Structure formats: structure tokens, C-alpha cells
Amino acid sequence: MQDIIDRLEMLRVGASLGGGQARIDAQHARGKLTARERLEALMDPGSFEEMDLFVEHNCTDFGMDENHIAGDGVVTGVGLIYGRRVFAFSQDFTVFGGSLSEANARKICKIMDMAMKVGSPVVGLNDSGGARIQEGVASLAGYAEVFQRNVLASGVIPQISAIMGPCAGGAVYSPALTDFIMMVKDTSYMFLTGPEVVKTVTHEDVSAEQLGGAVTHSTRSGVADFAYENDLVLLKQLRRLLAFLPSSNRDTPPRIDSGDDPKRRIYSLDNLVPNDPQRPYDMKELVAKVVDNGDFMEIQAGYAKNIIIGLARLDGRSVGIIANQPMVLAGCLDIASSIKAARFVRFCDCFHIPLITFVDVPGFLPGLQQELGGIIKHGAKLLFAYAEATVPKVTVITRKAYGGAYDVMSSKHLRGDLNYAWPNAEIAVMGPKGAAEIIFRNEIKASANPEAKLKEVTAAYAANFANPFIAARKGFIDDVIMPHDTRMRVIRGLQTLEGKQLSLPWKKHDNLPL
Ligand code: HXC
């Protein structure tokens, strides 16, 4: 018996070395942790249980039959994060570049199937050169098996991807199907084809960083949701992200005792919005002041900055925040911000996370570029997402809510549950000057001093119509609230809406304007 135990121990130690000490050292020299070190940092101490440690590939071509490493380049298993069960796989770059073989795809599929059955999130720590080239179509088949499961799991269990090395080909498509992508700056890349292929095909000379680095994807392409300094920071933030989420769509998000007074009044908010309606202010200040302990996990912070999205808590309940940002493009909705917010609204709706929307929007961004880019279709995504969402929806208009963007931003008419406005809010088809120019066109033309006339009719229009009371009289706004009461009223609103049930008409699935 002792022989068997010793042999098992030897196998375990051998397997845990992956591709060997030299490759582990190379991984460390690049500032990267190994696959197992990452899992240790991700999970609660000592909670990770590995599965399929002894799995090997079955490839016999290109001398692969002489080259077996137990586990075959991916560590899979289950552990705890803040005491809740989470399944994870971690690709081992020291073994065949973390490439995906038929055998290691089966390992990933096994934990995904298990996670679906029991209702727990799946975390993928990706560090892989893509399909294992030696295995050909067998590895492509392996990828498609993973993709299929990603799609079936979408909206059922949270799926989070971390990109922690150079990820190419299939190694980026599975993450693209998951809910969130986190990247590490300087050491992680995502591209379908690397710089050398790009140079051959399109003659473009680009670096890996330009083509698929963390900064590129978190500020320009919008592929990545988060970019962090190093592996450890990323893994800590991944734990933080999961803490906001339920384990599956069968659960509600965990509620915690945040220790922050739900009745806290915030008097500085009374002076947040400048008197001049053309002057911007920082909507992030509002968000930080309203949510529990200022703890706001912003998502896609560097992309489409004219809209702010992220997770926070109000009286200990997880909420999704969507807010126009007057500091960027005056808070207009454009293609990128509509897509960014629409995806987040749909994510929250999948997982029973109430939507809190702060509105200060002068409309959709006009212009040839936006129209040619398809703002009609892309803006409709956000409208669609809000209209189909059945979670509690609380909206606060802090200043402008003009035109179609008023409708889109969680208005009463899209089944907004509780819609509030600050006293200075302007709810109208357009801004006072634009409206006055159209309504009083003839009077302005006929006037001896058209400029003075425009000013006069604009002021009259603003006084009569640029306020929240017309909408409130119609019941489109449930109440005009004091800015300093915002936190208290939104929390009270969430209490009112607890237990909300709303279902959609039967359908196979909807037809979101993609
Ligand atoms: C087999 C691979 C591999 C792969 C890397 N390796 N990628 N082995 N299949 N896909 C091996 C290397 O041969 C090397 O082994 C070791 O991993 C480390 O790789 P290096 O190249 O030395 O590392 P680095 O310089 O950091 O470059 C990493 C890399 C590069 C950028 C990922 O290895 C690379 O370009 N790999 C190929 C990427 C690719 O074209 N993948 C296929 C995509 S097609 P040795 O023993 O020499 O150290 C695809 C189809 C799926 O994925 C489509 C689904 C939609």
C-alpha cells in the first residue's frame, strides 16, 4: 500500500510542476503566476479541490506520443469564494503554451456541466495559445464543445473570464461568450491572429500591445471590461465581482450588512448640479455618495465614458447602476454607450439585480458618423434591454431628460417602477433654445431684433416647460425629490419593490436588434 501511496504522491508532485521548473521560472520572470498559484489566490485559502489531475492527451502525431504531462495544460476544479462554491479552470502556459487539446477541453466541459447542474459560477483563467496545433480538428471540436456550453450557461450561471497571458484564436472566443472579461496590463493579449499574421495579410505593422493589449481592449475595442496591474490585483477584483452576484439565476444576490445608514442624507448633492445647464458635473460623485460606503465597482470605466455602469450595494442589496456622464459628450447616448449599457442591463436582468438609473441626457448624439454607424439599430439595443427587463427599476432624473433618450433611460413608459426627478430636472422633447427656435420661428423672423426675441421666447419656454412638473402632473414621474434624499428614497423604493414579479409573453427567445 505504501508503494501505491508514494507513487500517487510522486505523480501529484510531478503534475503540479506542469511544464517543469524552467518554464515556471520563465512564467515568473514575466511577472505572471502559474496556473495553480492563480487558483490559490482566487479561492478561499485551502478550499480548492482539483479534478482530473491525471488526464493526458491522446494525440500521437508530431511526436506527441512521447510527450505527456499529467493534467495536459489545464487545472480544473472547485473551490469557495467568500464561502460560496465556484468552479474554475486555469490554463497552464508552461504545458504546450496552455493550448487546448481534446482532452483538456473535456476537463473544462466537465466542470461547466457540473456548475450548471448545481448552479454555481464558472471562472476561466485563460493563458493559452489557442487550439493545440498538433491535434488539428480534434482541438477545434474541443473548442466548439466549450463554446456550446458557454452559450447554454449564459444567463443561468455567472461566467467570468480572466485573460492572464497571450491568448489567441479559440482562446479568445470562449471568453467573448462569457459575462465579463478581465485583463492584466502588459502581460495579457487577446487577438484572433497575432501581429505576424496581421503583417502578412494586411501589411499593417502593429505590436501585440496595440493589437490586443489590456489598454486596447479596455479603452478602444470595448472587448475587456476591466484592466488591472498584475495577476494578484485581478484575482482580488474577481473575488470582489463575484461577491455582488448570485450563484445562479435560481438565487438572488447575497445581501450583506453594509453598515451604511439607509436614511443617510447627502446635503452636498443639493449643490452638485451647476446653475448653468450647459456646465458639466461629475456623475461619478453622485454615484459614490449614494451607494453603500462609496463602494462602486465600475465596469468598462475606460470605454464609452459618456455612460457609467457598474455594481454597488444599497442597504446591502446588490444593484446595477447606469448613469449618463455629463462630463463626456455632455452625456449624450451614442453607439458605443448604448451597446455598453444595453449589455449590462441585460446581465443584471438575468441575475435578479435591480437597476438604478441616474439620468442626465441631452439626447442621442447627432451626426453622419453616428448615423452611418447604425445609431438607430444600436440605440435600439438599450431601449430593448430596458423594456424587456423585469427586475425592479428605479430611475432618478438629475437634470436633462430630452427626447428619445428620455424614453430610453428607464422611463415610466418602459415599465420603470419608480421614477423620481430632482426639482431642477428638465423633461422635454429638446432643450429650451432648440424648442423655442422651432415653435417661435415666425415670430423670431418677424422681430426687429431676432436675437433678443429668441432669448425672450427661450426664457419663457424654459420657465414654463423645462421642469419636472409637467411629467409629474401626468404621473410619468412618481415624485420630485430633494437631491439630499436620493439615497434614502432609492433604498425605500427597493424595499417597496421587493418581491416584484413580472413575466414576459411566451416566446422562444426575443430578436434583439444585434
Ligand atoms: C501547440 C503551442 C501553441 C499552440 C504555443 N505553443 N501555442 N503549442 N499549440 N496553439 C507552445 C509553443 O510551441 C512553445 O512550445 C510554448 O507553447 C510557448 O510558446 P512561445 O511561442 O514560446 O511563447 P510566446 O513567445 O510567449 O508566444 C505565445 C503565443 C505564440 C503568442 C501564444 O506561442 C503563438 O502565436 N502561438 C500560436 C497561436 C495560434 O496561432 N494558435 C492557433 C489559433 S487557431 P516550446 O516547446 O517551443 O516551448 C485557433 C482555432 C480555434 O485557436 C478557432 C475557434 C473559433
Describe the structure.
- The protein is α/β, with parallel strands linked by helices and 514 residues long.
- It folds into three domains: 2-244, 2-enoyl-CoA Hydratase, Chain A, domain 1; 267-431 and 467-497, 2-enoyl-CoA Hydratase, Chain A, domain 1; 432-465.
- The protein is 39% helix and 17% strand.
- Residues 96-97, 99, 129-134, 140, 143, 166, 168-170, 173, 194 line the site of hexanoyl-coenzyme A.
* The CATH superfamily title of the largest domain: 2-enoyl-CoA Hydratase, Chain A, domain 1
**Percentage of β-strand residues:** 15-25%
Structural class label: alpha/beta
CATH fold-level label of the largest domain: 2-enoyl-CoA Hydratase, Chain A, domain 1
Overall residue-averaged pLDDT value: 95
3D shape: elongated
- Major sheet attributes: 8 strands, mixed
Q: Based on the structure given, which CATH architecture of the largest domain is correct?
A: Alpha-Beta Complex
Number of domains: 3
Highest CATH level, the class of the largest domain = Alpha Beta
Distance between the termini: 61 Å
Instruction: Tell me how many strands there are.
Output: 17
The amount of helix comes to: 25-40%
Bound molecules: hexanoyl-coenzyme A
Q: Helical element count? A: 20
Please mark out the parts with pLDDT under 50 across 5 or more consecutive residues, or reply none. none
